[in-house]
Amino acid sequence: MVGLGAICGLLAVVFLVTQFDQLTAGGEDSVDLGQPVFSIGAAEDVAEAIATQGPLLLPDAARGDRDIWVQHLGTDPTEGWLAFAVRPAGAPRECAVEWLTDDRTFVDSCDGTVYPEDGDGLQQYAVSVDPSGDLIVNLNTDS
Q1: 78-99 per-position pLDDT tens digit
Q2: Measured between alpha carbons, how far is 27 from 3 in angstroms, rounded to an integer?
Q3: Residue 100 near residue 87 (C-beta atoms within 8 A)
Q4: CA distance linking residue 41 with residue 43, whole number of Å
Q5: DSSP symbols for the chain
């Protein structure tokens, strides 16, 4: 039984290693684990969270290069939505803009550039509220 378990374990490791190599090889057959269009929940709930805690930071777990801020301006949860890049174009990942609650602005952690609460000056993405009330972010299109 122990020998059979060891053989099964070895086969599983070999399978995982070969599949990992194929996934990380890039090219035509590479897998993108992130979705460019996604829901982040009920717009009403997200608007309430932003109103009390500030803009919502969404790190890009799939590609690692499209971290975004989701911001809501106004009181109507069906309008006033914004999504924009956490970093200026071409900036390294450690140069993220950070939210300053008291000033209601974003500031670049590397060079001190200040951006308004709507993220003007940063890459903008389309945001909408679907008929069921869910907040949809589309990273494929500019807003």
Answers
A1: 999 999 999 999 999 889 999 9
A2: 39
A3: no
A4: 6
A5: -HHHHHHHHHHHHHHHHHHHHHHHS-GGG----S-SEEEEEEHHHHHHHHHHH-SEEE--TTTSS--EEEEE-SS-TTS-EEEEESS-TT--TT--EEEETTTTEEEETTT--EEETT-TTS-EEEEEE-TTSEEEEETTS--
**Distance separating alpha carbons of residues 39 and 138, to the nearest angstrom:** 9
What is the pLDDT of the chain when averaged over all its residues? 81
What confidence tens digit (pLDDT) does each residue in 20-64 have? 334 344 444 333 335 788 999 999 999 999 999 999 999 886 676
Q: Which residues contact 30 (CB under 8 A, 6 or more apart)?
A: 23, 24
| Chain centroid offset of residue 126 CA | 13
* Tokens matching residue 128: 């909408």
| CB 68, CB 84: distance < 8 Å | yes
C-alpha span between 60 and 34 (Å, rounded):
8
Q: State the maximum Cα–Cα separation within the chain, in Å, rounded to a whole number.
A: 66
Residue with tokens 């057959």: 29
